[in-house]
Amino acid sequence: MKILLEPIFENGFVEDTSKCILYAILGLLLGITINLISKCTIHSLKISRLLRVFIQLVYCSMVFAFIKQYVSDRLVNNWINSVQGLFFVSVFFGVQYEMFTEIQSYTNSLVPNNNK
After folding, report:
1. Which 3 state secondary structure label does DSSP give 9?
2. According to the model, what pLDDT value does residue 9 have?
């Protein structure tokens, strides 16, 4: 079993578990921030749902680019290339309910309502 887990926990169990927790907290904070910014800016515009989703994805991309350029290139690469980084990504996008609400509303509008 240790051989199977070794590539995942390269730095030791405690250090990698700490990274998972730290990345989840960072993902939570950044995701909530982008969600609030999107809610305050995008929803005041009278634009299509798909354009709202696109704008929120641009916000996300800008945050990643800013962190990669000005904070830590290594941090972003770690999010992309590690199991611990999956915690950041899943929490980061998971708390952005505005984007998922727009996607759900758009897909619901494509399906005819048979309850009428």
Report:
1. coil
2. 54
Computed over every residue of the chain, the mean pLDDT equals: 82
pLDDT value at position 1?
42
Is residue 79 within 8 Å of 88, Cβ to Cβ? Answer: yes
Say which amino acid occupies 52.
Answer: R
Backbone phi, then psi, for 29, in 5-degree steps?
A: -65, -50
Q: Which residues of 38-51 are buried (b: 16+ CB within 10 A; e: fewer)?
A: beeebeeeeeeeee
pLDDT at 49 over 60: yes
| Cα–Cα dist 30/101, whole Å | 18
DSSP 8-state symbol, 47: -
- Phi and psi at residue 94, to the nearest 5°: -65, -30
Q: What are the residue boundaries of the structural domains of the chain, listed by start? A: 49-107
DSSP string, 47-77: --HHHHHHHHHHHHHHHHHHIIIII-HHHHH
Return d(Cα 21, Cα 17) in angstroms, integer: 6
